[in-house]
Every structure is written in C-alpha cells, then in structure tokens.
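The passage that follows is intended for readers who have already worked through the single-chain material. We present the inputs for a multi-component assembly, then the predicted structure in tokenized form, and finally a short commentary. You are encouraged to pause after the input and sketch how you expect the pieces to fit together before reading on.
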Amino acid sequence: MTYTVQIKVMPLKELLDPQGKAVMGGLENLGLMGVEEVRIGKNITLRINADSTEKAKQIAEEASKRLLANPVMEYFEVSIN
Amino acid sequence: MTYTVQIKVMPLKELLDPQGKAVMGGLENLGLMGVEEVRIGKNITLRINADSTEKAKQIAEEASKRLLANPVMEYFEVSIN
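Having made your guess, compare it with the prediction:
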C-alpha cells in the first residue's frame, strides 16, 4: 500500500534562525501586526510503498536521519495522515 | 493570547520539483527502498499575538498571501494546533 508521510524539519529551538528573522522584518515592513516570532524549516512529503503504517514510518525516519535532517542544526518530526 | 500557527508552503502538484527529484536520487543511492515520490516545501512556524484563533489564522493567511507563498508556483495551508 502507498502511504503519504509528512516530515517536518525545523531549526533547533536553541539556534538563531536568520531566515526567520528576515521574514519577520518583511512582515513588519508590510505593516502586519501581531507576529512575534518566525521560524522557517522544510516540509517534505514522501510517497512510500510499504506493507504497514509502521514500516512506512520507519522508512521515513531512516530517510530523515540519513539524508533529510542535519542533527547538529535541525530536528525532525514524522507524521502519517 | 499567543498562538502558534503552522504554515505549510508546497510546490503546486502540477509542477516538477527538482529539489525533491534530487533527494529521491539521494535516497536511492543510500539503498532506501519504497520511496516513490519526494516533494519538498517550506514549513513556517509563526508565534502570533491575537485576540482569537480566527484572528491569528487570518494574520497567518495574510502573511502567506503577501510574503510567504508564491501563488504561481506554490500553495499554502495554515493550521493552528
């Protein structure tokens, strides 16, 4: 069966996010009020052919660890809808 | 009150996603089986100070339309946990 898996890769909370800071400045320049913090990461959608949800999740986690996320700067979350 | 809003910005389904294609090749090189498609977009987390969930969502949608997503190439989804 084919599963659609979402992987969210975000900068670690302890680290500065210069891209987020830049967007924050852009929002202020547009006059958009109320935004206090912006953090920007990646969203990766995988279509995975696997026998079960668990197996699909396992493949997505391995892909995240080995290729998609850099653990020095990022954390990831895997979810299957 | 402060709300945490997630914005997912993804390449339109009709369009090629060269970054996703490259990652797909990388996964194959690592010997990771089962992945049929990879699409890569952005995940943006906003911390928004607003009076209500609806108001926070409205600010996030305006930010997406005016700055975060390029409608020619991307679609966005706003969600509040």
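Commentary: Chain A touches chain B through 36 residues (CB under 8 Å). Helices of chain A lie at 18-29, 53-68. How closely did your sketch match?
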